[in-house]
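Extended Data, record TetR/AcrR family transcriptional regulator
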Amino acid sequence: MTEQNNATPVRDGIVDAARALTVATGWDGVRMGAVASAAGVSRQTVYNEFGNKAGLAEALARREVDRFVDDVRAALREHGTDVRAGAYAAILHTLTEAAGNPLIKAILTSSRGGSDELLPYLTTRSDLVLTEASGALLAWADSVLPGADPAALAFAADSIVRLVVSHIVLPRGPVEQTANALTDLAANLFLKAATPTRRRRR
């Protein structure tokens, strides 16, 4: 992710404005002049920073991915070594974000419905963001379950991410209820991955 390295207050303000307009009207309806006005800069400044609308779309897509993965990591760390609490926080955050943020939902589900020009920039990052989310989950699980079977932890992290995405695509109940059920599965998978190693060390 290179967008964070290029961040400046002006650039961040323009991307924030573009995001707000996109959520309100859809990317097809976003105009560079409107973005400039919302950000409090000149139209030329927007072009100087991003080149064209495609460049702005690229920056917006990267911003969504970066923020989502960072928030997942923060949710996992929030509860220390409490496996269930950390997993629940991350899963609930993901389900809630997908329900309320059409950009995140497009990334996680590779949605290609509709004609919104922003979708290609979002959906091409689907594999990347899922890989990063799985990696964040695996790194966290490894830190709170030291000595667990690495292969079993990797399988658990990948399975949990896939299950969460499947419930985003086809929700079956309230977000909190789904998060609780998925967290029970996650805790069982992670603790099972840790159990064999503990037994062998006795």
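Summary. The radius of gyration is 19 Å.
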